[in-house]
Amino acid sequence: NRDVFIASAKKDDPNPPNVLPKVTLQQLTRAFQSVLERAHVNQLHQVTRETMSMRERMTNILKKLNDSNNDFLRIEELFTVQEGRMGLVVTFIALLELCRDDMLVVVQNEAFSAIHIKRAA
Q1: Region label for 84, one of left (φ > 0), alpha (ψ between -120 and 50) or beta (otherwise)
Q2: Half-sphere exposure of 111 (CA within 13 A, CB side)
Q3: 21, 52, 63, 78: which one has the fewest Cβ atoms less than 10 Å from its Cβ?
Q4: Distance set, CA 36 to CA 24, 26, 40 (Å)
Q5: What is the distance between the alpha carbons of residues 59 and 46, in angstroms, rounded to a whole number?
Q6: For residue 111, what is the DSSP state?
Q7: Phi-psi bin for 102: left (phi > 0), alpha (psi -120 to 50), beta?
C-alpha cells in the first residue's frame, strides 16, 4: 500500500439547474428599510471642537480665587462637569501651570482630606 493513490475526478454539470430564491414583497421592503436606516446613520455629520484656551482658563481660575469670600477655594469648585472631559483636562492642566508658575498654593490639612487652593502671596 505504499505507492497507491486513489484517483478522483470532479464532474462539472454543463447545464446546472437555475434555482431562483423566493423573495416576498415584505422581505424586499424590510431590506430597503434597513438600507435607508444605515444611510441615515452614516450621513455626513461634521462636529467642530471648541478650542479651549489654556491662558483663558488660567485667568478664570485666578478670577474665581479673587471673587471668593474665603482665601481658600476647594479644588472641586474649579471644575465644571458640563464641559465634558476636555474641559476638565484643560482646567486641570491650567491648575498645574499656575502651581508651576508659583501663582497658586495647594494645601491639604491631612491625608485623604479635601484639597484647597489659594492665591500665592
Answers
A1: left
A2: 0
A3: 21
A4: 19, 15, 6
A5: 31
A6: T
A7: left
Question: What would the pLDDT profile of 2-34 be if each residue is shown by its tens digit?
Answer: 788 788 888 887 887 777 777 788 888 888 888
pTM of the model: 0.57
| Residue keyed to cell 487652593 | 117
Q: Which of 92, 94, 96 is nearest to 58 (CA)?
A: 94
Instruction: Supply the DSSP symbol for 5.
Output: -
What is the per-residue DSSP string for 35-49?
Answer: HHHHHHHTS-----P
For 2, 18, 62, 82, 109, the CA distances from 90, given in Å and listed in that order, are 77, 66, 15, 13, 26
